[in-house]
Amino acid sequence: MEGRREGARLELVCPAGTPAALRAAVEAGADCVYCGFRDETNARNFPGLNFSPEELAESIDYAHERGARVLVAINTFPRAGAEEIWHRAVDTAAQLRADAVILADMGLLAYTAERHPDLRRHLSVQAAAANAQAIEFYVEAFGVRRVVLPRVLTVQEIAAINAAVSCETEVFVFGGLCVMAEGRCALSSYATGKSPNMHGVCSPASHVRYQEEDGELVSRLGNFTIDRVPAGEPAPYPTLCKGCFSAGGKRGHVFEDPVSLDAATLLPQLAEAGVTALKIEGRQRSRSYTQAVVASFRRAVDAQAEGRAIPAGELRRLSEGQTTTAGAYRKTWR
Amino acid sequence: MTQLTLGPLLFNWPAERWSDFYARIADEAPLDRVCLGEVVCSKRLPFYADRIPEAIERLQRGGKTVVLSSLALVTLAREQRLCADLAAGEDFDVEINDLTMLAHLAADRDFAVGPLVNVYNEGTLAFLASRGARHVCLPPELPLASVATLAAAGKTRGIATEVWAFGRLPLAISGRCYHARVHGLAKDSCQFVCGEDPDGLPVETLDGEDFLAINGVQTLSFAYAGLLGDIEVLEAAGVAALRLSPQDCDMVAVARLFRETLDGRLAPEAAQEALAGDLPEIVFANGFIAGRPGAEAAGHGWSAA
Amino acid sequence: MSEVQGIPLFPEPLRFLLRPLPLFPLRLALNRVVARFAAERPAIFRRLGSHAEKVYLIDAVDLPFIFRLRPSAERPSIDLCRRAVSGARLGPWDARIAGPLAALLGMIHGSFDGDALFFSRDIVVEGDTEAVLALRNALDDAEIDLLSEAARLLGPAGGVVERVGRGVLSEAGRLTGVSLVRAES
Q1: Residue C42: per-residue pLDDT
Q2: How many CB atoms lie under 10 A from the CB of residue C89?
Q3: Which residues pair with B160 in a beta bridge?
Q4: pLDDT at B166 over 70
Q5: What are the structural domain ranges in chain A?
Q6: Chains sharing 3 or more CB pairs under 8 A with chain C
Q7: At C21, which CATH number?
Q8: Taking CA atoms, what residue in C is nearest to A218?
Q9: Distance CA A156, CA A149 (A)
Q10: Residue C136: which domain range?
Q11: Looking at the domain assignment, is residue C110 inside a domain?
Q12: CA within 20 to 30 Å of A58's CA: A277, B105, B162, C142, which one?
């Protein structure tokens, strides 16, 4: 069993949308930084973001010199007829001595296991492996060493998984919260034609319009109104599943409130549940966000490891809707 | 000859209606394959589980190949056991909707792959073929170009490729139950409110646009997929089967329209007209196959949604 | 909503003093900064891609004028218009980013997070959302320090000015809450 060593400090895995954010994360105390190439091979394919191979090479050197690791997310699903774009991304990551690649697609996992057996493979949350048997399938078939767990599991379920699997697990502790099983959601492409799985974008900015109408801030995605917010209320992310709709004669956030995940106070339970690494979402956010969130979680992880109380609630202003939730980790969320 | 598959019923219908539905499908619908079983919510299964054997028997008597579908999102121990049981039964074809099933299926066992498994490229198709996949219903968001590439790749590996052709599109699955949430209930004490909406609960935007439909933990499109007008291009692309997903309408009539169009006995335009006549309230879309937003109705005669 | 972040407004008396300022020399200076940016920081343009050719209105709502920026690697330009002029005089634009000067500067200097400013509605975005995002991300990676950019305009004397200025502005920033120089972690 490769699981977490008893008493080991939780590993902090931090987002970097740009080389500047990567440096900010390393300086703020990240153990690992994850990032992606500037193309459709990664699930944060947003304008102005991500790394060229040259930038990644420099960034990996920078991180390694400071004792931090770099994980490269190649976690969209390769397009039929164009798989070589994704294959090349894996080849480049291997060549640049990335510490691991984060993959979701079975075909790409098979390619990587065959061509780069020594390159560490993590299973992306986009693969939505939500139970021990599914995870063991990925371990057995592709030699996956770590799985990023879907954000639909409770702490108890995570503990049960860790007791049964032969790889490490990583869980999200902060940032944007997918309410749908990741990698299994086509809501965005239904409204815009662009999807997380195929294009690495959800509710893409290119299809978002904000407009002031009668004192309300209206957000539209493609041809659909996603939300209307009165003046003075926090503005919504234009993300489809956090929009305000009406169903069954009731108006409201049918799928999820515009909140973001903050599981800082759950670190002792997550450690107890056998989790190896904690993941912070937000490659699309600024280096200021990265710096603040990573520094805060560095303090929290160190406090947890040393048995001190965990400082809570200090990141609220950086959150969507400016409120946070422990999400699915508490069963009442369902 | 392009086959017609009836996908698994996604909605929570009363047991009596469930039995009647499959009885009529067995006796009257021109279908080649019929998928049975609970894909959306394991809590619904006990209501009709004891009726499944009879339905299977009648469907087989009606000349249909019966395929048992697995659950889409498997987290609870009970759900994991359901997967193991499904894999252990050797008398029927199995359609997997989650990779949990691959952990259970014997290495030499052939199986079918449902639309909720991410098959986007040749590499994945090749891997699944090596594990025994023989029939793959592609994810509904794939554009025609991908469908064509995968159909061709599938042919060389002995996989029949299927496309979602009728019914609300399965867009997302979640750990959270939206039916319960809309009714102010917890998932664990949901009172099976999803049963009130045999065709899903429509979700409108604040500006009154029809948008989505919720079905327990599943989110579907408001529009029905309607690919009657795309049959020619799909067949040219090498698609081996079309999937019709059960809705709260006369599915025998729907199956007949598709069969007659496939057989060339009915022009696609006439079939569409007949379908629109049978289902005047329904909005149809085919945007995904056209590489457009899925909600759109592009070309081939459908008026814009 | 500014109280959430505590974003200060540009002081009214200073705003009043800025109003009659002749725009021409300011325009000239800004254009020199932008031209040098384009020449020296190709990474920004690689990040912007096609969005470099778009026209951005940068509207510091507590200043008496609006900036009209076209990043463009080949022909970068920045223009200033008085707030009083009608929309027509501003010409066509693709995206508008509006907010207090302190919010905009804080975003450029890496002391505020753009998304957080948006959630709190301290900044407002209109038009081509994707272009705004691209610009925000490209500038965030560039780790710009406006003081050193401005100081370099002064040539050899700039170094002294920058050293003195940084001390004064850092202190001023602490007092006013306005991020006048790049945030150092």
Answers
A1: 86
A2: 9
A3: B135
A4: yes
A5: 11-177+259-333, 187-252
A6: A
A7: 3.30.1050.10
A8: C126
A9: 13
A10: 2-143
A11: yes
A12: A277
Residue C149 falls within a domain, yes or no?
Answer: no
Q: Which domains does chain B have, with CATH numbers?
A: 3-170+221-285 (3.20.20.60)
Give how far the C-alpha of residue A213 lies from the chain's centroid of Cα atoms, to the nearest Å.
34
- To the nearest 10 degrees (0 to 180), the angle between helices A19-27 and A53-65 is 10
Residue A4 confidence (pLDDT): 46
Alpha helices in C60-128 (DSSP H): 87-90, 101-108, 114-119
Report the pLDDT value the prediction gives residue B237, as an integer from 0 to 100.
Answer: 97
Burial A18-53, CB ≥16 within 10 A → b, else e: bbbbbbbbbbbbbbbbbbbbbbbbbbbbbbbbbbee
Interchain contact, C134 vs A232, CB within 8 Å? no
Count the domains in chain C.
1
State the pairing for strand pair B33-36/B65-69: parallel
Q: CA nearest C50 in A: which residue?
A: A47
With contacts defined as CB-CB under 8 Å, which chain B residues touch A133? 74, 80, 83, 100, 103-104
The single-letter code of the amino acid at B280 is P
Question: B39, B111, B118: best mutation site toward chain A, by most A Cβ within 10 Å?
Answer: B118
- Answer yes or no: pTM beyond 0.90: yes
| Global ipTM | 0.95
Q: Choose the closest CB to A107 out of B124, B146, B209.
A: B124
Contacts of A64 (CB under 8 A, 6+ apart): A70, A97
C143 in reach of chain A (CB within 8 A): yes
Contact list in A for residue C134 (CB cut-off 8 A) is 47-48
Asked if A62 reaches chain B (Cβ–Cβ under 8 Å), the answer is no
State the pLDDT at residue A5. 47
Look at residue B211 in the predicted model and tell me its pLDDT: 97
Cβ-contact C47, C162 below 8 angstroms = no
Residue A313 is predicted with a pLDDT of 64
- Please give the average per-residue pLDDT across B4-32, as a whole number: 98
What are the φ/ψ torsions at residue B129 (nearest 5 degrees)?
Answer: -60, -40
Residues B249 and B192 sit within 8 Å (Cβ to Cβ): no
Q: Is B138 exposed, middle or buried (0-12, 13-18, 19+ CB in 10 A)?
A: buried
Give chain A positions within 8 Å (CB) of B120.
77-80, 105, 107, 197-198
Query: Does an interface of 3+ CB pairs under 8 Å exist between A and B?
Result: yes
Question: How far are the Cα atoms of A318, A325, C1 from residue A262, in angstroms, in the given order?
Answer: 11, 6, 23
Stronger pLDDT, A325 or A158, i.e. the higher one: A158
What is the C-alpha to C-alpha distance for residues B152 and C139, in angstroms, rounded to an integer? 45
Stretch 16-55 of chain C: residues touching chain A, C-beta under 8 Å:
43, 46-49, 51
User: Closest chain B residue to A228 measured between Cα atoms?
Assistant: B206
Residue that has been written with the tokens 């300022």 in this structure? C21
Helix (H, G, I), strand (E, B) or coil at C65: strand
Model pLDDT for residues C13-70, shown as the tens digit of each residue? 777 777 667 778 888 888 888 888 888 888 898 899 999 999 999 999 988 889 999 9
Q: Which residues of C touch A291 (CB under 8 A)?
A: 110, 185
* Interface residue B99 vs chain A (CB under 8 A): yes
A216-227 confidence digits (pLDDT tens): 989 999 999 999
Question: CA–CA separation, A195 vs B143, rounded Å?
Answer: 12
Tell me: domain A11-177+259-333, CATH 3.10.20.740, correct? no
